[in-house]
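Hey Z.,

So I finally got round to the inosine 5'-triphosphate thing we talked about over coffee. Here's the setup:
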Amino acid sequence: TVLVVATGNPGKLREIQPYLEGLRWELKLKPPEIEVDEVGTTFAENAALKASQVAIATQNWAIADDSGLEVTALDNAPGIFSARYGLSDGDRIDRLLRELGDHGDRSARFVCAIAVAQPDGAIALQTEGICLGEILTAARGKGGFGYDPIFYVPDQGLTFAEMPAALKQEVSHRGRAFQSILPRLKALDAE
Ligand code: ITT
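And the result:
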């Protein structure tokens, strides 16, 4: 059976793929011409929208990730608008650092919602993972993607961008979401 990975974000894809490769699905990439309007108001709604619409358009199973960064002092912005906060990763980081300024409360969290849809669009599985951290005042590290260079995880003493890929997979919002959904994905895959 084919499973379409419903993302156009290469950074996400790199992190999602290792979790799916051990399964029996035949993985396919979302055709770029399929674009989903992310009109939901939560990560979970947008993940479900992406998975359903791509499943229906391709007539295959589909898995989607909707994720973002919630900064406490910015009333949880950028949140579901994380991808739309600027035109490039650099712009998005600059804007976030500018809006946060020298605010004393640097606390933030990354959220990742995952949804799996069957070919008729019905949602078969959903989960969410979070990772708590702090926003630094300047970027650190070269790994990962997106906001990783400014997201510091106190438990590890590293930003996401400073972590070896395997460590980010272990502690990140996306890693936690996949760890929690993997047994159910395996059960679906075995059907
Ligand atoms: P798709 O919808 O095609 O999957 P997207 O990038 O538009 O790609 P989202 O709407 O879910 O996806 O936006 C997620 C944004 O949140 C992403 O573009 C990054 O800026 C940020 N983000 C999510 N996970 C991240 C991570 O692990 N590290 C850094 N930034 C992350």
